[in-house]
From TrEMBL:
Record's keyword terms, sorted: Glycoprotein, Leucine-rich repeat, Membrane, Repeat, Signal, Transmembrane, Transmembrane helix
Main location: membrane
GO cellular component, one term: membrane
Superkingdom in the source lineage: Eukaryota
Domain Disease resistance R13L4/SHOC-2-like LRR: 134-262
Signal peptide location: 1-21
Membrane topology, as annotated: Single-pass type I membrane protein
All copies of domain Leucine-rich repeat-containing N-terminal plant-type, residue ranges: 24-61
Gene3D superfamilies, sorted: Ribonuclease Inhibitor
Secreted among keywords: no
Record's protein name: Uncharacterized protein
Cellular localization per UniProt: Membrane
C-alpha cells in the first residue's frame, strides 16, 4: 500500500515535471473548439471524446510520444476567438489558421510554444498587436500574418527571432517606425510590410539582411531618401516600394549593385533626377514601375539590353524636353521583345512619332503615349 502510494506520487511528480501531457493537449484542443463556431458544423465533428486527438481532423502528432505537433485548420471557415489554451500544446511545431474568420487577438500564450517553426494566421480578422511574447518562439522560421486587422507598433523583440526566413505582415494596420532590431534577422529571405501605416525612414540596419530576396514596403507612409542600405542587398529579386514618401535620386550604379532584380516598383513617390542607365545591367528585369515621380532626362538607350522586360511604367514624370529626339528611346525598346505594356504618358516628350514604333514587341498589348 505504502509502495503503491509512493509510486503514484512519483508518477504524479513526473507528470508535473514534464508539465503537460497528452491529456493537456486534448484539453487544449477541446477548449479551443469551445470558443469556435463553425459555419459548416461538420468540420470539427471528429473532435470528440470517442477518439484520441491524434485522430482528429487537422491534427498531427509525433509518432512516438503522440503529442500534437501540427494543427492545420487552414480554410476551415472557423469563427470566434483563438483560445489561450493553444499555448499549452507544448510540442507544436506547425500552426496554420489561415483563411478563417477568427477575430479577437493573437493570444500571448503562443509565446509558450518554444518548438514552433511555422505560424500562419493570414486572412483572418485578428486585431490588437503582434504579441511581444512571440520572441520566445525562438525556432520560428515562418511567420505569416497577412491580411488581418493588426495594429500598433512592431515589437522590437521581433529582432530576436534569429531563425526567421519569412516574415509577412502585409495588409494590416501596423503603425510607427521599423525597429532597428530587424537588422538582426540575418536569415531572412522574405520581408513583407506592404499595405500598413508604417512611417519614417528605413533603418540602415537592414543592410545586414544579405540573404534577402523579397523586400516589400509598398503602400505605407515611409519617407526619407531612397534607403542607402538597399544597395547592400545584392540578392534582391523583388523590391516593392510604390505609394510611399521616398525622395532623392537613384544612384547611377543602381543596376550594378542590384543585378538580380526581377521586379522593381517605386511608383507614386517623390524621386528626382535621372533614370540610371545601369538599370540595363539587370538582365532579368521584367517589371519596372517608376510612374508618378519627378524623374527627368530620358529613357537610357541601354534599355535595349533588358531582354526580358515586360512592363515599363514611366508615366507622370518630367521625362523629355518637348523636342525632336525625345522618342528615340523607342528604337532601343524595339530590342525588348517581351515587352507587353509601355506607359510613358504625361511627360514632356516631343517630336514626331517615329516609324519604327511599328517594330516594338509583337507582344505589346498596351501602349500609352498621351
Ligand atoms: C465523434 O467523432 C467520430 C470520428 O472520430 C465521428 O464518427 C462521430 O460522429 C463524432 N461524434 C459526434 C457526436 O460528432
Ligand atoms: C496554411 O493553409 C493554407 C490553406 O488554407 C495553405 O495555402 C498554406 O500554404 C498553409 N500554410 C502553411 C505554412 O503550411
Ligand atoms: C492551459 O492554459 C490555460 C490558459 O492559458 C490555463 O488556464 C491552464 O491552467 C493551462 N494548463 C493546463 C494543464 O491545461
Ligand atoms: C519569454 O520567456 C521568459 C521566460 O519564460 C519570460 O520571462 C519573458 O517574459 C518572456 N518574454 C516575453 C516578451 O514574453
Ligand atoms: C542584435 O544582436 C546582437 C547580438 O546577437 C545584440 O547584441 C544586439 O543588441 C541586437 N541588436 C538589436 C538592435 O536588437
Ligand atoms: C553594365 O552595362 C554596361 C553597358 O551598359 C557594360 O559596359 C558593363 O560591363 C555592365 N556591367 C556589368 C557589371 O554587367
Ligand atoms: C539590339 O539587338 C541586336 C542584336 O540582338 C544588337 O545588334 C543591337 O545593337 C541592339 N540594339 C541596341 C540599340 O542595343
Ligand atoms: C523593322 O524591322 C525590320 C526587320 O528587323 C526592318 O527591316 C525595318 O527597317 C524596321 N522598320 C523600321 C521602321 O525601323
Amino acid at each position: 500500500m505504502k509502495l503503491f502510494l509512493f509510486l503514484s506520487f512519483s508518477a504524479l511528480m513526473l507528470l508535473e515535471s514534464f508539465g503537460n501531457s497528452q491529456e493537456t493537449d486534448q484539453q487544449a484542443l477541446l477548449q479551443f473548439k469551445s470558443e469556435v463556431s463553425e459555419e459548416k458544423k461538420i468540420v470539427l465533428s471528429s473532435w470528440n471524446n470517442s477518439s484520441p486527438p491524434c485522430k482528429w481532423t487537422g491534427v498531427t502528432c509525433g509518432r512516438k510520444h503522440k503529442r500534437v505537433t501540427g494543427l492545420d485548420l487552414g480554410g476551415f471557415q472557423l469563427r470566434g476567438v483563438i483560445s489561450p489554451f493553444i499555448g499549452n500544446l507544448s510540442f507544436l511545431i506547425s500552426l496554420n489558421f489561415s483563411d478563417n474568420s477568427f477575430g479577437g487577438t493573437i493570444p500571448q500564450e503562443l509565446g509558450n510554444l518554444f518548438r514552433l517553426q511555422y505560424l500562419d494566421m493570414s486572412f483572418n480578422f485578428l486585431g490588437g498587436g503582434i504579441p511581444a511574447s512571440l520572441v520566445n518562439c525562438s525556432k520560428l522560421s515562418y511567420l505569416v500574418l497577412f491580411s488581418n486587422h493588426l495594429g500598433q507598433d512592431l515589437p522590437p523583440e521581433l529582432g530576436s527571432l534569429s531563425k526567421l526566413d519569412t516574415l509577412v505582415l502585409s495588409r494590416n494596420n501596423l503603425k510607427g517606425k521599423l525597429p532597428v532590431s530587424l537588422g538582426n534577422l540575418t536569415a531572412l529571405r522574405g520581408l513583407y510590410f506592404g499595405e500598413n501605416k508604417l512611417e519614417g525612414e528605413i533603418p540602415d540596419a537592414i543592410a545586414r539582411l544579405t540573404q534577402i530576396e523579397d523586400l516589400v514596403f509598398h503602400m505605407n507612409h515611409f519617407s526619407g531618401v531612397f534607403p542607402p542600405a538597399i544597395y547592400d542587398l545584392s540578392s534582391l529579386t523583388l523590391l516593392n516600394m510604390y505609394v510611399n514618401g521616398f525622395s532623392g535620386s537613384l544612384r547611377p550604379d543602381f543596376g550594378k549593385l542590384l543585378p538580380n532584380l526581377q521586379i522593381f516598383t517605386i511608383g507614386s513617390n517623390f524621386l528626382t533626377g535621372a533614370i540610371p542607365s545601369t538599370l540595363a545591367n539587370i538582365s532579368n528585369l521584367q517589371l519596372l514601375d517608376m510612374e508618378v515621380n519627378s524623374l527627368t532626362g530620358g529613357v537610357p538607350p541601354s534599355f535595349a539590353k533588358i531582354r526580358y522586360l515586360q512592363t515599363l511604367n514611366l508615366n507622370l514624370n518630367s521625362l523629355g524636353s518637348f523636342s525632336a529626339g525625345d522618342l528615340e528611346f523607342l528604337v532601343a525598346l524595339t530590342n525588348c521583345t517581351q515587352l507587353q505594356s509601355l506607359d510613358v504618358s504625361f511627360n514632356r516628350l516631343g517630336g514626331d512619332l517615329p516609324a519604327y514604333i511599328a517594330n516594338l514587341s509583337i507582344n505589346l498589348n498596351q501602349l500609352f503615349l498621351q
